[in-house]
Specification:
This protein is mostly beta strands. It is built from one helix and twelve strands; from the N terminus they run αββββββββββββ. The strands form three sheets. Strands 5-9-2-1-10 form a five-stranded antiparallel beta sheet, with no helix packed on it. A five-stranded antiparallel beta sheet has the order 6-7-4-11-12.
Amino acid sequence: AGAAAAGAGGAAGATSSGAAGVTAASGGAGGAASCDGCKLEVVYTCLGTGTDSRNFAVEVKNQGSSLVLYKELTLRYWYTADASKEQELDCDTAERLTCNYIVKSTDPPPAPQPKFVPVTPPRTKANEYVELAVVQGALDVGGTTGRIQLRLHNKDFSPIDQTADYSYDCGSVGQAHDSPKITAYIRGVLVAGTEPP
């Protein structure tokens, strides 16, 4: 259980939630200012350009001056979902947290489930986002979640077009880099990244 803390003690709690359906632009610089000491960096790695799933890894680094509770932190991966296709999010590996602490589709209720939220009206290369969340723990100042390897796909594994996804960036497959297109929120306030226009 201590592994859930990624360098800090375990503060338990449910994942944070955003409003379903319509998404509003939130925060920006003002959002960061409302979260004293918050400064996060989201690192993204494209793990492939397959046609039936979005394979990628994320890592969150706490570069601010305040400890971050995982129950207050969510990431959003913005993409273009096929109409009428049910989505799933799977965790393959999580270096520090283990997949037991990642909210994923394979966890049976009453465990928290990933939130797939329609973007209304659609934005550039995004008619939906999935919230990436951790069940419990905390991210220390200077700490990192470690690499979390994920797969996002249609439940039936039907073909997808990743190039239509806002958060997709596979110019350098396997190379980790900062990603402003995967957005991070603390208590629903945007603290890192840029939402699609």
